[in-house]
Design a protein that fits this description.
The complex is a heterodimer of chains A (about 350) and B (about 70). Chain A is an alpha+beta fold. Chain A has 5 helices and 17 strands. In chain A, a hairpin with a 4-residue loop joins strand 12 and strand 13. In chain A, helix 1 packs antiparallel against helix 5. A 3-stranded antiparallel beta sheet of chain B has the order 1-2-3, covered by helices on one side. Classes of the chains: A alpha+beta (about 350), B alpha+beta (about 70). The interface between A and B is medium-sized, with 26 and 26 residues. The complex binds fe (ii) ion and zinc ion.
């Protein structure tokens, strides 16, 4: 499977990009990022047109990059503004620049045809930059193809086995699961609504709920890059209001950005935002440590899986069972997105 | 719990409900047609073939966003 180009991808957290040149490969394309003097994020191809030297190994001078090999100098748009030893700048002396949008604490980059980059298509994760929430976050490199991470996140039943009860609860096995696919808007939603569950000690302590809870764990995946896990707890029987507001629920919004680095490696961004115990450092530490532990357990397993798959003939037949319903839906949409990117004529406006 | 969960609100939403305590998946198309299966691959194939092979139940309720004519107030 090829990449789904002509899509927005998370390239970095905004905090990662400053006045130092920053290299990151996205969908096999080496990019260099920096923040201009005015504060906007710039993304250029990370190769000097002259002899391919990485611009990220070069020097930032004001808003220009001076190539560390021969001194070719590029502006924010990637145009060469200085060539050593000669007055004439060759017409083809420019490096591609990439559309960038900073939103919800992420730096999103458009990989594809520049004129198709529409910022309205970027899915939102508003909690990450909302003062009503406290967020912990990180990024782990994954030595596995991004499809394996999509599979992994679309099926939460693996938590019982892979995470050894770290995040699983006994009620999950007795919870009906509904999978929904919105074909027009390309959203996959997997709901696990537990009407009456025991309150895990962490929630009891940090929210002050005593007694049993209504617990929802809903996956909302916006292929290809953004994955949301809406976790909601409330005293038993307390549901969101008819208008969608939810003043009596406690929310943990777990956000993943799944960005292919190469065909066989992935940037695994993760963030956990909550709307309770906002100033409680102990709660922040617990959420950071437990989520990072879970992410690293998945990384270890998927790295193993990638090596197994690479050693195999390409047409190995898998077996799919009920827990794969959401993952299968995700694969279908990703496949279609990749096909459209190869052949724009197949693309439908969304 | 018999109530079927529906969280997405689009016009073309396909749903698969895993029937509690069974191995059965119930596929529900946006046209109202339903199909049971124990194989998610087969079920997605059936759902996404819409309208081919989909026969909505005779008394299918109208989609929530469309009211019967004359019901406008
Ligand atoms: Fe996991
Ligand atoms: Zn149908």
């Amino acid at each position: 499977m090829t990449f789904a180009r002509n899509q927005w991808y998370v390239a970095a957290y905004g905090r990662e990009i400053g006045r130092e040149l920053f290299a990151r490969t996205i969908l096999g394309e080496p990019l260099v990022f920096y923040r201009s003097e005015a504060g906007e994020v710039v993304a250029l191809a990370d190769r000097c047109v002259h002899r391919r030297y990485p611009l990220s190994e070069s020097r930032l001078e004001g808003d220009t990059i001076v190539c560390g090999y021969h001194g070719f100098t590029y502006d924010k748009a990637g145009s060469c503004v200085f060539v050593p030893g000669q007055a004439l700048i060759p017409r083809t002396a420019r490096v591609p620049s990439y559309p960038v949008v900073e939103q919800d604490s992420f730096v999103w980059v458009w990989i594809g045809d520049r004129d198709r980059a529409d910022r309205a298509l970027i899915p939102r994760a508003p909690w990450l930059a909302d003062p009503a929430y406290t967020t912990v976050s990180g990024m782990e490199p994954l030595a596995a193809r991004y499809e394996l991470l999509v599979d992994n996140l679309m099926d939460l039943s693996h938590e019982t086995y892979l995470h050894g009860g770290y995040i699983g609860t006994p009620e999950v096995a007795n919870t009906p699961i509904t999978t929904e696919v919105d074909e027009d808007n390309r959203v996959i939603y997997v709901s696990r609504h537990m009407a009456d569950a025991a309150c895990p000690p962490f929630y009891a302590k940090s929210t002050g709920i005593d007694g049993r809870i209504t617990r929802w764990q809903d996956i909302e995946y916006h292929p290809p890059c953004l994955y949301l896990l809406h976790s909601r707890v409330a005293p038993v029987g307390v549901l969101p209001e008819a208008d969608g507001s939810d003043p009596h629920g406690f929310h943990v919004e777990v956000v993943y950005a799944i960005t292919p680095e190469t065909e066989h490696s992935t940037h695994d961004f993760w963030a956990v935002a909550r709307d309770f115990a906002l100033d409680d450092q102990e709660v922040s530490d617990f959420l950071r440590e437990s989520n990072r532990t879970v992410v690293l357990q998945d990384v270890t397993a998927l790295d193993i899986l990638e090596r197994v798959i690479q050693a195999e003939p390409p047409d190995y037949q898998e077996l799919s069972i009920n827990i794969d319903t959401g993952g299968l839906a995700a694969r279908r949409i990703l496949k279609r997105m990749a096909a459209e990117a190869d052949d724009p004529a197949k693309g439908v406006a969304v | 719990m018999n109530e079927r969960v529906a969280m997405l609100r689009g016009d073309a939403v396909y749903r698969v409900h895993w029937k509690l305590g069974t191995d059965l998946l119930v596929g529900v198309c946006h046209c109202g047609a339903e199909h049971d299966s124990e194989d998610p691959v087969e079920l997605w194939d059936w759902l996404l073939a819409h309208p081919e092979g989909h026969r909505p139940p005779v008394a299918a309720p109208p989609p929530p966003d469309r009211r019967p004519a004359g019901a406008l107030v």
